[in-house]
Amino acid sequence: MATLVLLRHGESVWNAEGLFTGWVDVDLSAKGESEATKGGDLLLDADITPDVLHTSLLKRAIRTANIALDVADLLWIPVKRSWRLNERHYGALQGKNKAQTREEFGEEQFMTWRRSYDTPPPPIKDDDPLSQVNDLRYAELPSELIPRSECLADVVDRMLPYWYDSIIPDLAAGKTVMVAAHGNSLRALVKHLDDISDEKIVGLNIPTGIPLVYELDDDFSPLKRGGEYLDPAAAKAAIEAVKKQGAGKAEPAAKPAAKSPAPKDERKPRRGKRK
């Protein structure tokens, strides 16, 4: 049996502003940093010790992982990074306001671009300031591999080779693997793990900052479809909030009842050695 921990990055500055982000390298908001801290607390409280971390090349995922692992006293574990775990590229929509895009193009077109499985937004031009063709972190990639726009099907296609070539070997070696990535790259992975149809994946949302844990069998299939969030109540509330993104100024989701923290002297000790 193998353990896989999925962690969507905390809220980014552009998430907070309601902008399409994609491959633009924006940082975490203050709320996102707090979410990452909570993610680390949840790992610590669940006594889950990742042996290796896989992240994208984008700072919001990298910093979320670093914050969470630091809280859990695991900042020292090996790290592997890949563009294949990057967020979906939103093409010419990158940097645009979601609510304004909905108003300009209408509900149907907006939802087709944002949530359909196989329809990408209009491509970004190479000379656009928000294009990644001249980004140094992708300097080793052939130009044709750098997306100008992607749908979720494209993300599945570019993510799966990394799953098979990099993540599965770590799982096969008996390691507990943590993947800190993005809403759509994690949706792509969950689609594969849970064998979700192209039609049903449209309705799947993954909340920010709450670890999702899969126990996998010897064939790397989930023992429990859908895995298990380390804070199910918070995950449920956050998933509802994700559904409202782009719908204009939405009412804040009701907060689930907070778990009472253990007295300071009863909290689990920070890890000083491997179990």
UniProtKB/TrEMBL annotation:
Site (Transition state stabilizer) residue list: 182
UniProt region (Disordered), positions on chain: 245-275
Pathway: Carbohydrate degradation; glycolysis; pyruvate from D-glyceraldehyde 3-phosphate: step 3/5
Pfam families: His_Phos_1
Transmembrane spans: none
Signal peptide: none
The reaction(s) this protein catalyses: (2R)-2-phosphoglycerate = (2R)-3-phosphoglycerate
Active site: 9 (tele-phosphohistidine intermediate), 87 (proton donor/acceptor)
EC number: 5.4.2.11
Any one biological process term the GO annotation gives: glycolytic process
Lineage top rank: taxon: Bacteria
Gene Ontology molecular functions: phosphoglycerate mutase activity
Feature: compositional bias, Low complexity: 245-261
SMART domains: PGAM
Family, per entry: Belongs to the phosphoglycerate mutase family. BPG-dependent PGAM subfamily.
The protein's role, per its UniProt record: Catalyzes the interconversion of 2-phosphoglycerate and 3-phosphoglycerate.
NCBIfam families named in the record: pgm_1 (TIGR01258), PRK14115.1 (NF010713), PRK14120.1 (NF010718)
Protein known as: 2,3-bisphosphoglycerate-dependent phosphoglycerate mutase
Organism expressing this protein natively: Actinomadura mexicana
Protein encoded by which gene: gpmA
